[in-house]
Amino acid sequence: MSPFELLEPRTLREAAGLLASADPSVRPIAGGTAVMLMMKMGVLRPARLVSLRSVERRYAEVSAADGELRIGALATLALLERSPAVKSRAPVIARALKTLANVRVRNVATVGGHLAHADPHMDLPPVLIALGASVVIVGPAGERTLPLEKLYAGYLETTLGPGELIAEARIPAQGTRRAAYLKCTTRSADDWPALGVAVVLDADGAAVREGRIVIGAATDTPARLVTAEQVLRGARVDDAVLRRAGDAAASEAAVIGDQHGSAAYKRELVRVYVARAVRAALAHG
Asked: Is the dihedral of CA 213, 217, 218, 221 positive or negative?
């Protein structure tokens, strides 16, 4: 790795000020699971790293005002996995985390870094978007709140401005909604999925009132499949409905190929896994 200067601000606002210049040689680092790997590979050569490890944003709690689940950006994925608040308010998150990377990564990786890295193979963005999550963003101009699905602009690209950092994720309680996250992976050394599918359903038995379907890994950003959601809306789920939903999802998704599978292969995965994820969500009722 090339030499770099390490700065350790005490607050997110201070960190935002250090990053506000938009100098590409100045980068933030939280858990470091992505940044350090890119630095070791020579892909990233920052002259200055702004460490966030001293910032007190490590929590997962339920808001007394509105019942939202609020997660600090510096909370580790392992903290979420063990959190009673997460297990009670959004159990689909806790289930998804058990299949995310490995325990060493989860002990270090942070929620803010996981979301801001914008690698479409990440597991949590589809789950959180399906739950209707938003993020609180802190920057030199102050604070703003953004629906999580609007954070992503492209492959490894976000809509964060110069100096802006994720401060908190806010997730509506899952409540009686049924939810599941499925992914197709070879369990290879890097463990990146070829497809991830998150489904959240408001349903009475097999009758679906509303549903949200979000995929990752097969597209360059997490993507809602609105046409497939419309197939489920107001329908009683059976094999015919699931076939129509899978076909609609495969037609709608802007699938890309990579080393984990061709576009044609991933499109077929979308067709199959959307149906499987809907069944899994109904089973978790």
From this structure: positive
Please say whether the beta carbons of 171 and 130 come within 8 A.
no
Long-range contacts from 11-14, C-beta under 8 angstroms, 24+ separation: 11/55, 12/52, 12/55, 12/57, 12/73, 12/138, 12/165, 12/167, 13/138
Question: Pairing between strand 165-171 and 157-158?
Answer: unpaired
pTM over 0.85: yes
pLDDT for 88: 94
Q: Where are the domains of the chain?
A: 60-171, 179-283
Question: Is domain 179-283 annotated with CATH 3.50.50.60?
Answer: no
Judge contact between 148 and 135, C-beta under 8 A.
yes
Give the architecture-level CATH label for domain 60-171.
Answer: 2-Layer Sandwich (3.30)
pLDDT in tens, 97-111: 998 888 999 999 999
| Residues sharing a CB contact under 8 Å with residue 284, sequence separation 6 or more, in sequence order | 91, 92, 178, 179, 180
Say what the alpha-carbon torsion angle 132, 66, 208, 183 is, to the nearest 10 degrees. Answer: 40
Residues with Cβ within 8 Å of residue 57, at least 6 apart in sequence: 12, 72, 73, 74, 75, 112, 167, 168
